[in-house]
Amino acid sequence: MTLTDLTLAIGGLGLLLLGMQLLTDGLKAAAGSHLQTFLERSTQTRMRAALSGFTVTALVQSSSAVVVALLGFTNAGMLKLREAAWVVFGSNVGTTMTAWIVALIGLKLNIGVFAWPLIGFGMLIQLVRKNSVAGNVGTAIAGFGVLFVGLDTLRDAFEQVVTVLPVEQLQVTGVAGVLVAVAAGALLTALVQSSSAALAIVLTASVSGVFSPLAGAAVVIGANIGTTITALLASVGATAHAKRLAAVHVLMNSVTGAVALVLLVPLWWVAELLSGGEQVTNISSGLAVFHTLFNVLGLALMWLLDNRIFRQVERWYRLPPLRSGEPRFLDKTVLQIPAMGLGAAQQELNRVLRQYIMRLRALLRDDAVNTDTEEDIATGELLGHIKVYLNLLSEKQLHGDEALKLAELHNSYARLIDLRDIVEKLRAAKPEYIDASLNHDMRNQLLELLSGADMKDRSEASWSALLSSIRATRNLLRHTWLTNIAANELSPTEGAALFQLASLWERSAEIIAALKA
User: Fold this and answer.
1) From the record, what ranges are coiled-coil (predicted)?
2) Range with the largest mean pLDDT of 73-87, 130-144, 429-443
3) Rounded to whole angstroms, what are the CA distances from 453 to 13, 251, 419, 440, 445?
4) Is the dihedral of CA 196, 155, 202, 2 positive or negative?
5) Among 15, 6, 284, 5, residue whose Cα is nearest residue 152
6) Which residue has the higher pLDDT, 452 or 176?
């Protein structure tokens, strides 16, 4: 093997990874917010969620990209853990499309006939229709062509690699040999950060005789386990939602890998039988079948074990308490797609609102005997996190509805700052003044407005009617206090304090109605 062969191998690997990156980025950009809409509508059942994961991954050609996007969707509250997990399970099966494309097209046909035209045609579309859906599709088409050119180059390089190996094939003998092959597959995937690219490399190497059948199968198992590295890295420093989904992904692939290792020989026998038997001249088709069997096995195992896994990861990673200042939804994963970031920020703003609603209820029920401000500090920390993320979202290029949504979030944030100031003033007031500022009707009207059970389904007309009742009661109280001041039954200072508290109650009701209606 000469220096030219070595550089050819490195160049082929680079072209393969570049093609995968262009294909994935182009299709992700073309899909835009449609990916979110598609997943929200197609995850109502386990089977539908798995089919949607299969479909998206088969198109995007990267389960890692899909899983990272799902981390953001789960964080933003757009998908529940169970829904996102089943999309991940289907996504694993979707990666089999890469193996079949490589085995049936990339390694069997004259690549130059269609790969080079794809690159030229795709880049022409990208240049003519730049910054559009068509332009992004053009990037994906060009990436598809580059991927196949990389495969062809890598195959030529592997043919030279075989001539310098100390043995004709890398054989797998015994448990130790199988485990070494699995570790090699996991390491390869961790290095290239794509199980699809790792599988393409393994299948290409198999054509040149680098791997024996069982060695290739063991490397495939390792590649599937190694693909969880991307999700794990993306979940570092993320919220409990992201860590839960990453843990589910790791457990699913690890359990499937362990079972597949126990059944390695019979699984390969079935794969060999389905791909044409022992007379097949190369093992690429057999490995594609084996990879498919592996992921279908994983889907079947999850059908039996999913609830146990979900309960386990929920025990491992608990969500911060409602009154905590730690974000539940905001982390780096939600900033990748603006729609996710907007949804996550809305969820956190809703948390702040619920915290202040709870404190207002406590004041109305005389439950707030503790004047400690620790809860206010925690909510202040959460508002600080929200402000940072809103500023980061403002730096993104938002258009149309997304820009309008961000403006609404900034407005909601400002209202919550006002509500925080109101709650702090009410909690700082003397208990006797709080009681005096509320008659029976006012207290009940405010408690009805703050009733969490009714808020979700309350119509805009009902909100308006409640606010009108509160204003009318406050005006009646104000008239009573003015009369008492005139009759020297209430001091002007005390009257002014009651006027202010009544105004604060009314203003808090207006803010909550504006945020919930």
Assistant:
1) none
2) 429-443
3) 58, 37, 21, 21, 15
4) negative
5) 15
6) 176
User: What is d(CA 85, CA 226) in angstroms, rounded to the nearest whole number?
Assistant: 18
Name the residue with higher pLDDT: 422 or 230. 422
pTM attached to this predicted model = 0.66
Mean pLDDT throughout 135-141?
Answer: 79
CA separation for the pair 138, 134 (Å, rounded): 6
Contact 219, 213 (CB under 8 A): no
Tokens of 427: 């909690």
Per DSSP, the residues of 166-234 read: SSSSB---HHHHHHHHHHHHHHHHHHHT-HHHHHHHHHHHHHTT-B-HHHHHHHHHHHHHHTHHHHHHH
Question: Tokens at residue 172, please?
Answer: 């797998």
* Amino acid of residue 339: A
CB atoms under 10 Å from CB of 187, counted, come to 16
Report residue 80 CA to chain centroid gap: 10
Structure tokens that stand for 251 in this block: 């457990």
Q: Are 275 and 73 in contact (CB under 8 A)?
A: no
Domain ranges of the chain: 3-316, 320-428, 431-516
Tokens representing 161 are 């690699």
User: Whole-angstrom Cα distance, residue 64 to residue 50?
Assistant: 15
Mean pLDDT, residues 16-38: 65
Beta-carbon contacts of 488 under 8 Å, excluding residues fewer than 6 positions away, are: none
> Distance of CA 203 to CAs 98, 151, 238, 464, Å?
10, 10, 35, 66
Name the phi and psi angles at 151, rounded to 5.
Answer: -60, -45
pLDDT of residue 482: 93
Which amino acid, residue 188? L
DSSP annotation of 105 reads I
CB 246 within 8 A of CB 230: no
The burial class, CB within 10 Å (0-12 / 13-18 / 19+), for 430 is exposed
Task: List the Cα angle 251/200/28 in 5-degree steps.
Answer: 70
Residue 258 sits at the vertex; the CA angle it makes with 256 and 260, to the nearest 5 degrees, is: 65
| pLDDT, tens only, 270-305 | 888 887 765 444 577 888 889 899 999 999 999 999
Mean pLDDT value across the chain = 79
Examine the pLDDT at 505 and tell me if it is beyond 90. yes
The span from the CA of 123 to the CA of 120, in Å, is: 5
Residue 131 C-alpha from the chain's centroid: 25
pLDDT beyond 80 at 173: no
Q: What is the pLDDT of residue 151?
A: 65
Contact in structure between 176 and 59 (CB atoms under 8 Å) = no
Give the number of other CB atoms < 10 A from CB of residue 407: 12
pLDDT per residue over 365-392, tens digit each? Answer: 866 444 455 566 678 888 988 999 899 8
Q: Please, which residues have CB within 8 angstroms of residue 354's CB and are 6 or more apart in sequence? A: 322, 452
Q: What is the DSSP letter of 103?
A: I
d(CA 150, CA 130): 25
